[in-house]
Each structure stands twice: as structure tokens, then as C-alpha cells.
Amino acid sequence: xADTDVRLQPKKxxxxxxxxxxxxxxxxxxxxxxVLIAFAVAADWDRLANQFAQGDIxxxxxxxxxxxxLKNTVLYTVSGFVVGLVLGMVIALMRLxxxxxxxxxxxxxxxxxxxxxxxxxxxxxxxxxxxxxPGTEIPGGTYGKVxxxxxxxxxxxxxxxxxAGIQAVPKGQMEAARSLGFSPARAMVSIIIPQAFRIILPxxxxxxxxxxxxxxxxxxxxxxxxxxxxxxxxxxxxSQTANSTPILVAGLCYLLVTIPLGFVxxxxxxxxxxxxx
Length: 277
Fold this sequence. Notes:
This protein is mainly alpha-helical. The protein has a single domain (69-275), classed as MetI-like (MetI-like fold, Orthogonal Bundle), CATH 1.10.3720. 80% of the residues lie in helices and 0% in strands.
């Protein structure tokens, strides 16, 4: 009888998977909040405010930080992006070419310029090119040098992105175009590449964000006061005022551009995933 009563008693169950996940999330939230509180308590906010949040110094930066520094940063970025996109398209088509030397040259270019730091490319453009070709000037002065340096770096990454986009277009599209009397070149330009760009638009926008930040390397080319971009502008004022507030303001100006661009990228990626579904 006692054995029967034991068997009839309900067995104690442990936590379900959902309960375990909820408990795990709760513990993570508690740890996260605890770390934030510890950081807030330990930090010396008065010293930070004195070094990075001087309102009078920040006001001195306007409107030049927008009309000069941010404007130059955008110009450098857009010009480098255009050069990189054009050069990247050429290299991508060379990678897909049936001619062996073209594929080899494109592969060597991509490996070299993806492997070298962007800083070395800027130094090469600013120092090595004038030494190798005395008396020659890159068109556009500093703007032309920055466009070329950023374009050379961006082209290596864009070429692989464009190549992947072209290969992602169904082969039937080329076959259909050929059946309609299109030449291979015309079919590529009119049919394949437009479809590829719809696929690769999000990663290309990401590359634009990266170029926007890499434009800070322009200081290694030696720029005038009127050619300074955000980082150079902020560093110069920080040195003059012996305060880091200009660097913080310059960083916020970067975020004014990169955060909206990041939002655009996420929206495009979401739309692309919806289209696939």
C-alpha cells in the first residue's frame, strides 16, 4: 500500500526550456545593469566634463566645423567612393573575364590593396608618386590625391562585392538576353549589372560609411587650413585650447552622417530579405 502511494505522488519537474531562457535573460540584464552602475559610480564625471564638455569651446567651433570640416569630409568621401566604384567595376569585370591575364592582374590588385593598410596608401600617394614622377601633379590637388587614395583602397573591396553580385544574378538572365539578340557586353551592361547592383546596394553603402571614416587619413597628405576634414579640424583646435572638447564635437559630427547611413543599410537589407521570402 505504501509503494502504491509513492507511485501515485506526482514527480517534481525542473524548469522548462522557456523558463530557463527567461531566467538566463534576467541574469544577463542584472549583470549588464550592475556593470553600468559600477561604471557610473567609479567614473570621475567632473574631470570628464571639464576635459570633453566645455560649452564655450564647442561654440567656437561653429559654423566652421560644419561649413568647412564636415563639408570637406563629405567631399573626400564622395570623390573616393566614385573613383572606387568605377575602378572596382573594371576590376570585377576583369575577374570574371575569360582572358587569363586579366583575371591574374585583377586578383593581384585585390590581394595587394586589401592587404595594405589605408595609411600606407595615403603615404604612397603623397610621397612616392611625386618622387616617381617629378614635376607631375595629380589633378584636383589635395582633393584629387584623397579621391585617388580612397578610391584605390575601396576598389579592392568593391570589386569583390560587385563580382559576387554579378554571379548572384541567375544565369538564365544572360541566356534570355542572348536569345533576344543582345551581345554579351550589352547584356552585361543592360541586364546583369543593374540587377547585381540591387543585390549589392547594402554592402556598397557600408563601404561608403567606412570611407567616410577613412577620410581622416587625409592629414598625412599635408593639408591647408581650408582643406582640413573633421579629425584634423578637431585635433588642431584641441591642441590650441588644451582641451578635448573639439575631438568630441568632431566625433558627434561623424555620427550625424554614419548613424543615418547605418539605418539606411538596415532598411535596405530588410527589404532585400523580404523580397527573397
